[in-house]
Amino acid sequence: MNYLSTRKNGTNNEEKVSFKEAVINGLTKNSGLYFPETIPSLPSSFFENIENLEDNQIAFEVLKPFVKESLNEQQLKQIIKETLNFSIPVVQVENNIFSLELYHGATQAFKDVGARFMSRCLSYFYSKNENNQNVTILVATSGDTGSAVANGFFDVKGINVKILFPKGKVSPYQEFQMTTLGKNIQAIEVEGTFDDCQKLVKEAFNDTELREKITLSSANSINVARLLPQMLYYFLAYKQLKIQDVLGNKKLVVSVPSGNLGNISAGLIAKKIGLPIERFIAAHNANDTFYNYLQTGKYEQKASILTYSNAMDVGNPSNFERIEYLYNKDLEATKKDISAFTVDDISTIKEITNCYEKNNYLLDPHGAVGKLALHQSLKENEIGLFLETAHPQKFSEIIQKAIPNYESEKVDLSNAKKLFIKNSYDELVEIILK
Questions:
Q1: Has residue 209 been placed in a domain?
Q2: Which of 45, 199, 293, 372 has its CA 20 to 30 Å from the CA of residue 158?
Q3: Which of 385, 293, 370 is nearest to 330 (CA)?
Q4: Is residue 153 within 8 Å of 115, Cβ to Cβ?
Q5: Domain limits at 276?
Q6: Is there a domain that residue 30 lies in?
């Protein structure tokens, strides 16, 4: 499997690399994102019998074509074993509506799967590093990515991690998970928004002089090793729905809380492979760049807006390029597979309250956005699945607005270790080179 740049019309757009090279490089030479040259198809028999397969077997069959020249079968199986070491249950919330709980991993967020998979890949790729040079992982986060990457790469030999997060725009629990590990994990608080952090990361990857001095890689969903394993959620959810015997003749619709569009991009690739999902819903908060694109056909990036569902506070989502590439910039074809809805903070709080009182089910703010978007779109002949992307306790201050007597685990930030920079690339480079 080769990987190409999403930027077909740029300079140096003939780049063609292996999975290993794509993972290590992070971004393409013309500053695009890597995308598989072809999307392989799985036979219909695979889906007809998926309920009889072990989770690790499903993951192996799905991922094998994407990595086979870079990882042998034994290596891939071991990575999958270490990645899928926690449950990913489908839970019925109400009639025809189910939650896919992605928060049962180490940092209680969906990004644990991608971060663990990528860290194991890099460990294999750099185990025979001839120059004995450490790899620097540079990542921007609006909250959960930083937590998952910090945990996934913690104490991994030969890899240093630098995490950029926006000051005052992540929850205390998220900050705790990023800033209290130490060792090879360094948290950097930035005076700005997530988009500012992401811009600094991209600037570093485009800095030829810097990359001659150090080996630099990314762990955001811009990296294919973070993106591709996120497909697995959808396959494992479909298996469980078949086991629960709830699909019948109904079509499956999946609502994805969407910020940087990585999770929904992975779902769309899963659909192209053959997974029988009828359509996706991109569920947004006030950061509605992709929603507006589907309405108008024009992509206009915005400054990000701070909301209660902070992991989705992205005004210029990187993975838009992958969706555009996948559909060859055909808006009508894109709209056949994806619709979008926006949900404000007031509605988010109301949904958390209503769902808890009526269904005895506690949503986090992102899941609440996903569930509300599903309600606005679901038809009688459809089964709806929304992604519950993080544990509610990570957003206890928000949950308490909806459920005043809610109590969560307290976090102690007195031992937090972090650096602070202004929105300055020169300051970032100084830290990286130290």
A1: no
A2: 199
A3: 293
A4: yes
A5: 86-108+227-402
A6: no
d(CA 55, CA 248): 22
- Number of domains the chain is built from: 1
Print burial letters for 382-394: b (CB count within 10 Å at least 16), e (below 16).
Answer: bbbbbbbbbbbbb
Spatial separation of the C-alpha atoms in residues 259 and 313, rounded to whole Å = 6
Q: For residue 58, give both structure tokens.
A: 């499903």
Instruction: Give the pair of three-digit tokens for residue 346.
Output: 């007031």
In a domain, 78, yes or no: no
CB burial readout 105-134, b (16+ within 10 A) else e: bbbbbbbbbbbbbbbbbbbbbbeeeeeeee
Strands (E), 8-122: 34-36, 90-94, 97-101
If residue 138 lies in a helix (H) or strand (E), which one and from where to where? strand 135-140
Question: Residue 223: what residue type?
Answer: N
Question: In this structure, what CATH number is given to the domain that contains residue 363?
Answer: 3.40.50.1100
From first to last of its 434 residues, the chain has per-residue pLDDT tens of 999 999 975 455 578 999 999 998 888 988 899 999 999 999 999 999 999 999 999 999 999 999 999 999 999 999 999 999 999 999 999 999 999 999 999 889 898 999 899 988 988 887 655 455 678 999 998 877 888 889 888 988 788 999 999 999 888 888 998 999 999 999 999 999 988 998 999 999 889 999 889 988 877 778 999 999 999 999 999 999 999 999 999 999 999 999 999 999 999 999 999 999 999 999 999 999 999 999 999 999 999 899 999 889 999 999 999 999 999 999 999 999 999 999 999 999 999 999 999 999 999 999 999 999 999 999 999 999 999 999 998 888 899 999 999 887 777 888 889 999 999 999 999 999 98
Comparing CA positions, the residue from 49, 43, 37 lying closest to residue 62 is 43
Residue 259 to residue 263: CA distance in whole angstroms: 9
The 3-state DSSP composition of the chain as helix, strand, coil percent (nearest 5) reads 45, 15, 40
Q: Specify the residue for token string 């839970």.
A: 91
Residue 3 lies in a domain: no
Contact at 8 Å (CB) between 259 and 288?
no
Q: Per the residue annotation, which of 16, 77, 111, 401 is the catalytic one?
A: 111
3-state DSSP assignment of residue 384: strand
